[in-house]
Amino acid sequence: MRYLKSISIILLLITLTFNGFSQKEWTLEECINYAIENNITVKRQELTAESADKTYFQSLMELLPNANANGNHYINSGKTLNTETYQYENQSFQGGSVNLSAEMTLFSGLQNVNTIIKNKINLLAQLQTVEKVKNDITLNISTAYLQILLSKELRDNSLQQLEITLGQVEKTKKLVEIGNAAKGDLLQIEAQAAIEKAELTNAENNLKIAYLDLTQLLNLQSPEDFNIVIPILPDITLSKEIDEVNSIYENAIGFLPEIKSAELMLKSSKKDLNISYGRISPSLFFGYQYSSRYNELATNIGNPGSNYPYIDQITDNASQVIYLALRIPIFNNWQTGTAISKAKINVSDSELNLELQKQNLYKTLQQARTKAIAALDRYKANLESVKYSEEAFRYTEQKYQVGLIDVLEYKTAKNNLNKAKSDLAQSKYEYIFRTKILDFYKGEQITL
Asked: pTM, whole model, 2 decimals?
């Protein structure tokens, strides 16, 4: 009875730890959505995309003319040239000037146009990077969620095995009391129970760690008050045939953000090369300039001896210039040539990066499909192993209870059953995880 009380306490603690703290149970979809909405990496990447949007906006504004205005006011003392009379004056006086200028680029080798296109492409690439981060989070959350399900099943299996052993301990005690079993048999079965208690503790700790991993991905402060929905999983032996790698690959390269981002960065590098070539071209500018001045020593020629107000001076001294300017690059310390060479290198590197992304995707799909098929084969084999191990254990248990075999044979049969169930659970969740990855690369939402 003492062992039965112990197992009851263990069951109570398990229930309190994983079911009693919280009424809310999180589905996989809720975990994924919450993680994406609250993940700091996603938020930082969104800020990077916002910065790229501002860069794109600024490149559009570069098509507009620039305008600048300035003015100055001065006080002279001592002998100073009076620019109004072009005579030296030995007295203090005040003066100043105002200037206004505007200029717009009419042509510069299409550098501005290509810069706009390049920055728009960079913005789109950054948005794809945001999606890539979200996809990574989705896969990480799914992995952690499935790990909880696996750890829970392994824990439940350990608990079930301990219950069986504790029951056998009580039966063996009775056999020892009536003389139908040796004291050594009882000691060995009690030792087996102690081992399985330790295994249950390890399984319990693994489940706690699995919960901790998921809550950390969700940026929750603690795994307490957190629990997940335990879904009803379908019989995977009835799963449909897995699609071929080439079929999944051709579909995936059409929408995966890492591929689209690499394609966009290749286009961006090509535009950067066009910008570098544009520096060779002459540039044509249209401009306007306005300037005027005033001086308190100035005299009004039309009305000598009268006061000459500053506003009148500004009007009378005003000058305006409208111009076209052609600027031809001749030599700039080989900066343009170096920029073109580096831009060509960047184009080649972007081409290699795109090819690398495609290769990595294909390898990932190959591995996921191969591992999924292998996991399904192991699952079917383990299913047979569990079936026959259960039959073997029941037969061994019956023989042990009537004293036809010793405790070592009983323990061996029981351990074989326990291992078969553990292998079955691991192969099942391995298959589910790999097939979910393949579904994800087919553009399907990960659900359980």
From this structure: 0.83
